[in-house]
Amino acid sequence: xxPAGTAGVVLPGGFxxxxxxxxxxIARFAPVMDAVSAFAASGGPVLGICNGFQILCEAxxxxxxxxxxxxQQFICRDVGVRVESTACAFTAGCAVDDELVIPVKHGEGNxxxxxxxxxxLEARGQIVLxxxxxxxGSIGNVAGVANETGNVAGLMPHPEHAVxxxxxxxGGIQVLEGLIAAARAFEPVFA
Length: 191
Known about the structure:
With about 190 residues, the chain is α+β, with helices and mostly antiparallel strands. It has four helices and nine strands. Helix 1 links the parallel strand 1 and strand 2. The radius of gyration is 15 Å and the shape is globular.
């Protein structure tokens, strides 16, 4: 269960259950995912970062799947991402076409959806971030997607690692500020 008064959920990056099958495939069965799904269904903001994005896709909370990088190697570097939609709580403080620099750190970050799914997501503003270059083979350079209502989103780049100018890029600030704003605006329904 989520603690009473939970106003936002973040599924962070890292490795879940060793990721032996497919990233996030086992973690989606973790008992807490029922509570996360209920929270998301109630309109609560849920952000999946890297492995968290993989888990949200595997759990059916976000569309598409994440596969092995095209180059079949782990990637760890700063990348540019372009904001494609502000219909999502986490990009609401951005403008369309804003470019953010945020690091990626993944081996299975190649987002895939059928051409029909990509067309649907584009039409509904659910593709929220795209890489400015082909980083890992993701179809359409997709770096992040949201659900239809915009309260659940996942992205492969790590915004939490892009917040201090002394350490590098600060492109993650706007995404995390969006999370904070969404959590402050949410009225928890769990007592």
